[in-house]
Design goal:
The chain has 253 residues and is of the alpha/beta class. Helices cover 36% and strands 27% of the residues. The protein is elongated and about 70 Å long.
Length: 253
């Protein structure tokens, strides 16, 4: 039975998948549409002739395969995984068998590693794992069908991101949330919400919703022409004039 994921964790999944697509494009991997399991996809991909680099997804993993099996490409596959996790701001450890030529290429690519015998169930030889600093596996790879494969566990990566609260992920969340309770406050909030959306700012009108900035409309402050803006990264708050609020929000996102 497939799991349904919503809320903040769904945004983490979306963030990871979008970044994966972006890095795969930089490394010149072609997207492979598949609805079969990982091993069968690896098997069928190894017979494709129109390209040598492919990436694909299943419900829980992001995968790639490089059909051109040589030491440089092996190092490049590892650098792909390293680059992806580094862009997320994660501290990771690459554990790889002592394969001299591959290690030399990793050094040329500025990829740090530890020499350690690794084991995983999918790959036949030249195996490696990429873990967090506590040893939890995030990615694994190695030789398969005379090709080079990599599998990233999305759930493990999302779990790590959620635990460290990587603030850069807020860029992929709501920009502005408006909190208002009384009718007079809601009327002001509705006008502001409309202005924000017309300004291409992702915004919503709920209590305690995840957002980069929160506008708190309080009757007492509103009577003074002020709205409270809370920065959910710095946790600081500031009162802003009602006639200045739109410009302030735009300039502080």
């Amino acid at each position: 039975m497939e799991e349904i994921i919503g809320g903040v964790n769904a945004k983490y999944y979306n963030y990871v998948e979008k970044l994966w697509d972006s890095v795969a494009s930089l490394y010149n991997y072609n997207y492979l549409k598949t609805n079969i399991d990982i091993l069968e996809t690896f098997n069928k991909a190894s017979k494709l002739k129109d390209n040598t680099k492919y990436y694909f997804k299943d419900n829980n993993n992001l995968c790639l395969i490089n059909l051109d099996n040589n030491d440089f490409n092996f190092a490049e596959v590892i650098s792909f995984g390293f680059r992806l996790l580094e862009e997320m701001g994660l501290d990771v450890v690459i554990k790889i068998d002592n394969k001299k030529d591959i290690l030399n290429y990793l050094e040329l690519l500025d990829v740090d590693y530890e020499i350690e015998h690794t084991d995983n169930t999918y790959f036949e030889d030249f195996k490696f794992n990429i873990t967090d600093i506590n040893g939890k596996s995030l990615m694994m790879g190695g030789k398969i069908n005379n090709s080079i494969g990599l599998i990233a566990n999305i759930a493990s990566i999302v779990s790590l991101l959620a635990n460290i609260h990587d603030k850069r992920l807020l860029e992929n969340m709501l920009d502005v949330n408006i909190e208002a309770i009384e009718n007079e406050e809601k009327i002001v909030g509705m006008r502001l919400l409309q202005d924000l959306r017309w300004s291409d700012i992702r915004s919503d009108f709920k209590i305690n919703n995840e957002a980069r900035l929160t506008v708190i409309i309080n009757k007492d402050k509103l009577n003074k022409g002020l709205l409270e803006v809370k920065d959910n990264i710095t946790k600081s708050s500031k009162d802003i004039g009602e006639d200045e609020i739109l410009d302030y929000l735009i300039s502080n996102l």
